[in-house]
Amino acid sequence: MRVASVTMFVLVRAVTYAALFIGFVLVYLPDRFLSWSGIVAPATTGAPQVAGMIMVTIGTVIALWCVFTFVFIGKGTPAPFDPPKKLVVRGPYRFVRNPMYIGAGTTLAGAALYYQSLSIFIYACLFFLITHLFVVLYEEPTLRRTFGDQYEAYCRRVRRWIPNTS
Fold this sequence. Notes:
With 166 residues, the chain is mainly α. The chain contains 4 helices and no strands.
């Protein structure tokens, strides 16, 4: 009973943090960019909108898969101030070390395509740049200190951004 209640508490925290992150970074800020640039929803749904919706769906599924993997395998949340207790190398993390950021970036790129918005595309590019710097300058050193040789072995097996093809 105790393990289930602890897991439920971690799940609630993770969903709360994810909702705040998604709400601010993937909904509120892009909406601001659209309103500042005067772009409204497309009058018709064409190929760019369909492709954009597919990208948003794929990115969202990847990001949510990551959140649930952190909760149920890592026993923590994606938030840097409430991280997993165990190194997460399963689920989407088998393929690439930063799938959550890839999912979020894919969602932003899909929104840019859906709205055909240069401002959201630039925002998505900045998101990837800032995320890369955050990963290299903060996350990876923190994971090295926390998980040591286990994290080093993981880094040798799994690439940072591009899945291994072998």
